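WARN no homologs supplied; continuing
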Amino acid sequence: MSYDADPHSSDLPDAALSRLTPHSISSMSDFEKELAYFRIPLRDLKTATNDFAEENLLKQGKSSDVYQGKLQLVIGRDVVIRKFSSTHPRIHDFNLWIKAISRFNHKKFVCFIGFCDEEGEKMIVMEHVVNGSLHMHLSTLNCLQRLEVCFDVAVALKDWIEVNGDRSDWYGIGFKIMLDKDWKAKFLVSFEPDKERPDWYLLGKMFLEVLYGRKVTNEDVIQVKQGYDIIDPYLKKEMLRDSLSLFRDVITICFEKPEDFENFGIIPRLTEAHENQWIRQNPVSNFISNQLLL
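OK structure emitted
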């Protein structure tokens, strides 16, 4: 598994520790020491966003606002800052959120940079993901990209569950799927109160969206279970029949909510579907590779 549960792996440990005195460290609980590695001063976030200027506001919501900024603590890194309202229905879980995401450093998750809890403000800082959410690009991704997205998401969800367990409430944590500069999928931990918690049913629903090239409804899910075919015409034309069949198998498995998904081969099926599709779209490269092995 490619995660690192060491909180010292943050991008900010040296900067955070430099603001702590020996006395303050000795008086901290283990939990407070763990969080100290990720604490970012309010003044630094104000500088990063030009005092939370309107031109840096990406999204305004009932329970939080989202800003973009450039954080000098990490060499001018582009970041996204979620600034929570005191009326957020799960704001009492703020420390639990930090604890959960700070312990999970995974290449398929949007990187957690740090947090701020000063002067009544509560904020979480994440890396900025260049290409935004998956939903913005559902209709434009090619076959290989769609299969890669599904594979990345399945691996990330598997690893998250193995580390954090299949908790009933997830501390109010939900997820969004983002696409980085290389069009690779990354999980973004979301703290919006209306987000559904991640599970294999929702994974199947996301796979349907990739297959159809649009957002799907619960009615779409019912139609699929009844055998209706509403696949994106582009995919039906471009994707190998074997790859498409494997993809459909994966969706069916997700909707059956397996207790141990590894026994049902979700990830191996996605891997095989991607390899088959890659060979079809890269025949010359595949021929050269085979010749080198002779």
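Residues 170 and 191 are 10 Å apart (CA to CA).
OK
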